[in-house]
Design brief:
By secondary structure, the chain is of the alpha/beta class. 39% of the residues lie in helices and 12% in strands. Helix 2 packs antiparallel against helix 3, helix 5 runs parallel beside helix 6 and helix 7 runs antiparallel to helix 16. It starts with 8 loop residues before the first helix and ends with a helix. It binds glutamine.
Amino acid sequence: MKELYNLTVKEALALLKNKEITSLELVTSCLNRMEEMEPTINAFTFINKDDALKQAENIDNRRSKGEKLGKLAGIPYSLKDVYNTKGLPTTSGSAMLKDYISPYNATVVELLNNEDAVLIGKTNCDPFGFGSSTENSAYGITRNPVDTDRVPGGSSGGSGAAVSYGGGIFSIGEDTGGSIRCPAAFCGIVGLKPTYGRVSRYGAIAYASSYDTVGPMTKDTYDNALIMSVIAGNDPKDATTSNTDVPEYQEILDTDLKGKKIGIVREYLGDGVDQEVKSAILSAIDVFKRLGCEIVEISLPYTEYAIAAYYVIGLSEASSNLARMDGMRFGVESDKSNWKEKITDARGMGFGSEEKRRIMIGTYALSSGYADKYYHKAQQVRQILKNDILRAFTEVDILLTPTMPVVAPRIGENTDDPLKMWLMDAFTVTINPVGVPALSIPANKKGDGLPVGMQLIAPHFKEEILYQFAYGYEKALK
Ligand code: GLN
């Protein structure tokens, strides 16, 4: 039998239900695996060992008494360290929040608690979600378990690494411009950026409020769909959440893809895309052809402006969201007595260079005299990008692109060149300003070279379509 930490959620639930394993055994297997891997990988900022063991025991007792249990009873999961978890540290990957203890739970945590999932730890990330490699974290870099000389992607790199090596059975990431999809691609797992407003952001530390999304990172599509059915839905505490019905996504995966139309974006397979990535994506397209899908070439001509617009708006929002990190409301406190010095000192100490770079750019873009030139211009580009993508959906069911133009870079490869790092996000950042859902799934088989992610994009609130294509592909690849 597989090591327990290697099980999928579906497999683990079946074994737990049949009493072939206990939750205590499952949680212990993951904790042992973490003990073995963490000295090298550093996927976690906090391990919730005692609590997790206690919860697992409690669920086992309730199960043996025949009590009704939640949908995810006894399954250990990890959580990107940007979500508030009552009584536990929440650092957001930044030194600014090194002593912060959450006073309440994020909605996503409450929803998973209600279904008896077991929180096993909080995962490392680039500070406030700022990055694509998890090299900017104040708590050390995270390494990719597939190849430890390489980055796991980011900013939810700790979550990607944890799922890939078995530090918990699934994870919850956060995606503002690719932070779930990029690590999913580099670590060879499945990651969903849901439609904006599909999952509550209440209790998530904000990066860019009009882009931020909360989504599952899992070993396969079924698990992802199952977790989404738990965390999606309206939340009175987040006014941007939608009332649209939440299907049991995992029950509607199996559909015939024959005759369905897939749009291949011409601009996303051009220069600058690694040969390895291109050939994996082209073979994936062949698989879909064999499944009877029709392939249509699409052009998204405004893509070249997406990165600039994404960063101008995203960093404007970030600079204003981070204003509360002043050492008085939130963040490390300085011992200076003059209030101005106190704030300057706290922000100087707490923020690392990536946070400072982004706050300065955002503040500049919003300053009077420049707001029209940059911020408002970027909002106009955002509308054009949206029109571009929505027009494409009048012709096709989904769009298919590489998730990242490259395979996981080596550690340190891009750290001296922040612009190069930002450019790496070309295919993921277009999605968040538009708000549509996008899923990254492995395009190649495990062990077939470094993982390559394929990004599927669907219209607003059509997550089920993404899952159906992904599930069909996964089955065909087996
Ligand atoms: N890498 C992108 C950025 O740095 C996306 C980050 C995210 O999704 N949180 O902005």
